[in-house]
Amino acid sequence: MFPFDQQQPLVTLSQDPEHKTKLNQHLSVLTEQAKAKILEQQRKYRERYDRYRTNPIYKINDIILVKTLNKRNKFDIRYEGPFKITQQLGKKTFIVQHIKKHTLVRQVTIDVIIPLYERKRMN
């Protein structure tokens, strides 16, 4: 005779009839807590970001430099230009044209451009 020979033919497990409802409520609470935490972290991130951000305003004919995006080493140039703003497509999107190479036209966003100011000559 082996131990498994004496096994009862039918095994029943007791289950709480409210188990599914309780589990859904618990998951719902966890989801709401996660959403609240994400929104709080986003607010803090935005606050830190905005603290040091300037909001430059560019106009047509402003002279600017465009940040070089594909730098391979620290000696590569950081900015290209000078460019002149020829058109504003949106709140933060511009069409710029190179000052000397007039065929070089680009669409750029406000985060990759910096203003270029002309020095006043002292006579």
Automatic annotation (TrEMBL):
Domain of life: Eukaryota
Protein name (Swiss-Prot/TrEMBL): Uncharacterized protein
Source organism: Rotaria socialis
